């Protein structure tokens, strides 16, 4: 019997002895149907392990509670939490017997696995459902839409996959949804919280008398795509966290406006996505206390109105493409340079901020930190001359400037080559191309530096226009989700490119060798196309490249051994501050037909992400492992790798490891149990042996091996296990 089951027994015994539930004043005994259901829940939880534990202390009993209605004696609340010994599935059939349950909380139970059972659909009185910080997997169940009383849904910190069911929009009382820290994909349901749309003008007086419910939405740390639904503009939000997804487009019409619906918005986190819009003209909700827009592709200037947000305590606009002067005064005295760093051309006249904000994040090592400290000291002692220089940089270009005529001509030719798609209707010869949708200009020079054409169904056929090469100051090119785009990658692209995305198209042919000549390139995404042939070795010549995504193509041949090697990740003995900055390397090559092994040279690369699944790779992949490596995601599944897993050290920061469907032998390292960030570890379909270390992963992560044993698999016998 686990501690959670023991405590339920203890609480149930108290209910039967004292009557009426947790209140000592109650005279109503626990209803016999609920008594039977609780005993079944107890058995379901207690049957997971063969061990038993002694009488719990007062502190131990705080992890489980049963709440009864003092009038009817029916169980209306059940909470089980903080039990590391509980393993197995949610006892759904037993829980379904608690027909009057209004609140169910199962949280911080890492051994709880399997899907969310359909039998919970019978709990029609639920107003709160929490299944959080567990090993639960599978999809977000569609039956949730039948729980019409549900107001609060928390399925965070699990291993749920698939799309968010659109049927959640049918819940008439839903006010809070937390699905953060899962593996969800697909779009955000546009009608979510349609029950909380802003009232019409005729109802203002009624709202003042009876303030209406505000919505809270947590969807961070998933893989959601698409944009922020336009329908959200009418939802009365208090809290929105969409950070760390793959969202794109312009969220400002829905979430960055001073409207009646958003007058209660206090927390907005859109960081680490692919949002692209101009910040210049946005309207910031007046009650904002937390605003994080960092790590996107946001352009324009910081609006002066930000200084008037009296409740603002957290502001992060770093890692974008903002220009101009950082507003001063008001609440801006609360923020330092880290709120604005790594932008295109931001500068500050406020003496509390450095004059020119640093463009890169420092490396996490001692020497780099010392250099950063020296750099900060130098910034603080900058003379008044830099103030004048900053003033010049901020105001030298007036709002009347228009884009360069050469760029305008090239863009109009590109529009014609694309067949004048609907998305480019703002591109007209009598307007400034710097005001056109999907075009980004440098504020100081008027040259076009960004072009993005994404998800346009009217672009039904055609090739990538050669005229793009005429945009000779272009830094970012994004052509994505255009299935009608076909043919090869053009033989020439602007040498100024730092980010190149051609993804989810029908583009075919080889990867052109000239990509190795784009010396400024930092990010290359050619995923989900029909490209063939080998990965050109010339990519190794790119000195600033840190992200390569070529997954879901038809590539063949070997992995380039010198990829990411023409760079400087090591400590610089000369103490130059400029070399104190670097990015972790991200490599995604899954779903191709690559062959050969892992190059020995890759052992020296500081990878953050390596995804090589579903190829024909073989040999020893242990060069990618190492305790001190910064690797966070490693997917080598469905190849033919063969090495001794017992002899590798897992990276201490790793959160996702999939080594399934290979020929890996040895045992699972005991270190796996110590990895605090690890939420996925799949070694199924290999030749592993030995006892498993304590783990929260479910049995499917270890199945089809030679002789693995121990929870969550069967018990180990007394015979010695030979790992070979």
Write up this protein.
The protein has 724 residues and is α/β, with parallel strands linked by helices. Among the domains are: 301-396, no CATH class; 402-510, Ribonuclease Inhibitor (Leucine-rich repeat, LRR (right-handed beta-alpha superhelix), Alpha-Beta Horseshoe). It has 8 helices and 40 strands. The strands form 4 sheets. It has a 17-stranded mixed β-sheet that branches. The protein has a 17-stranded mixed β-sheet that branches. A 3-stranded parallel β-sheet has the order 17-19-20, covered by helices on one side. β3, α3 (92-96) and β4 (103-114) form a beta-alpha-beta unit. The radius of gyration is 29 Å and the shape is globular. It starts with a helix and ends in a 15-residue tail after the last strand.
Quick structural gist:
With about 725 residues, the chain is of the alpha/beta class. It contains 8 helices and 40 strands. The N terminus and C terminus are likely disordered.
């Amino acid at each position: 019997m686990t501690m959670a089951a023991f405590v339920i027994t203890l609480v149930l015994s108290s209910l039967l002895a004292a009557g009426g539930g947790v209140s000592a004043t109650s005279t109503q005994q626990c209803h016999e149907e609920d008594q039977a259901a609780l005993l079944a829940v107890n058995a379901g939880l207690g049957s997971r392990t063969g061990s038993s534990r002694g009488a719990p202390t007062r502190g131990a009993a705080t992890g489980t509670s049963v709440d009864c209605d003092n009038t009817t004696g029916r169980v209306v609340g059940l909470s089980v939490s903080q039990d590391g010994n509980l393993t197995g599935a949610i006892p759904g059939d037993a829980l379904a017997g608690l027909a009057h349950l209004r609140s169910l909380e199962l949280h911080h139970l890492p051994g709880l696995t399997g899907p969310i059972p359909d039998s919970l659909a019978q709990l029609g009185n639920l107003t709160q459902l929490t299944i959080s910080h567990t090993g639960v997997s599978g999809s977000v169940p569609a039956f949730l839409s039948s729980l019409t009383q549900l107001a609060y849904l928390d399925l965070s910190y699990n291993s749920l996959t698939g799309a968010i069911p659109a049927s959640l929009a049918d819940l008439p009382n839903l006010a809070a949804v937390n699905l953060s820290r899962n593996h969800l994909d697909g779009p955000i349901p546009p009608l979510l919280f349609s029950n909380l749309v802003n009232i019409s003008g005729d109802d203002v007086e009624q709202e003042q008398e009876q303030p209406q419910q505000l919505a809270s939405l947590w969807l961070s740390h998933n893989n959601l795509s698409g944009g922020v639904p336009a329908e959200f503009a009418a939802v009365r939000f208090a809290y929105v966290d969409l950070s760390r997804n793959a969202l794109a487009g312009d969220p400002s019409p829905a979430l960055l406006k001073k409207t009646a619906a958003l007058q209660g918005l206090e927390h907005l986190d859109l960081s680490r996505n692919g949002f692209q819009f101009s910040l210049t003209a946005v309207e910031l909700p007046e009650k904002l206390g937390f605003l994080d827009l960092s790590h996107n592709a946001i352009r324009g200037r910081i609006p002066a109105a930000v200084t008037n947000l009296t409740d603002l305590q957290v502001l992060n606009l770093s890692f974008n493409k903002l220009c101009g002067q950082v507003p001063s005064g008001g609440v801006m005295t609360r923020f330092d340079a880290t709120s604005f760093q790594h932008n295109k051309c931001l500068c500050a006249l406020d003496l509390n901020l450095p004059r020119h904000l640093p463009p890169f994040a420092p490396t996490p090592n001692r020497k780099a930190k010392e250099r950063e400290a020296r750099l900060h000291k130098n910034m603080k002692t900058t003379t008044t001359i830099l103030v004048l220089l900053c003033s010049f940089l901020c105001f030298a270009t007036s709002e009347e400037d228009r884009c360069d005529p050469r760029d305008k001509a090239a863009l109009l030719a590109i529009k014609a080559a694309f067949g004048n798609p609907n998305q480019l209707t703002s591109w007209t010869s009598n307007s400034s191309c710097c005001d056109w949708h999907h075009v980004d200009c440098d504020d100081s020079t008027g040259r076009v530096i960004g072009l993005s054409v994404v998800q346009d169904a009217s672009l039904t056929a055609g090739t990538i226009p050669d005229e793009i090469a005429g945009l000779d100051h272009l830094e970012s090119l994004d052509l994505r989700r255009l299935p009608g785009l076909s043919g090869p990658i053009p033989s020439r692209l602007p040498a100024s490119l730092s980010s190149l995305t051609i993804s989810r198209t029908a583009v075919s042919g080889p990867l052109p060798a000239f990509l190795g000549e784009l010396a400024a390139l930092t990010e290359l995404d050619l995923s989900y196309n029909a490209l063939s042939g080998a990965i050109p070795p010339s990519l190794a010549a790119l000195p600033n490249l840190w992200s390569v995504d070529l997954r879901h193509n038809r590539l063949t041949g070997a992995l380039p051994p010198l990829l990411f090697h023409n760079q400087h990740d090591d400590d610089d003995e000369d103490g130059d501050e400029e070399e104190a900055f670097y990015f972790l390397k991200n490599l995604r090559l899954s779903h191709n037909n690559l062959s050969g092994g892992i190059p020995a040279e890759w052992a020296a690369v500081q990878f953050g992400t390596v995804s090589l699944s579903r190829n024909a790779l073989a040999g020893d992949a242990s060069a990618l492992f190492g305790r001190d490596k910064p690797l966070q995601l490693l997917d080598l599944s469905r190849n033919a790798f063969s090495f001794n897993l017992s002899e590798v050290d897992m990276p201490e920061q790793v959160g996702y490891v999939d080594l399934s469907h290979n020929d890996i032998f040895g045992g699972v390292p005991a270190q796996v149990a110590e990895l605090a960030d690890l939420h996925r570890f799949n070694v199924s379909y290999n030749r592993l042996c030995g006892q498993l270390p304590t783990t929260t992963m479910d049995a499917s992560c270890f199945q089809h091996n030679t002789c693995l044993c121990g929870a969550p698999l069967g018990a180990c016998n007394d015979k010695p296990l030979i790992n070979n």
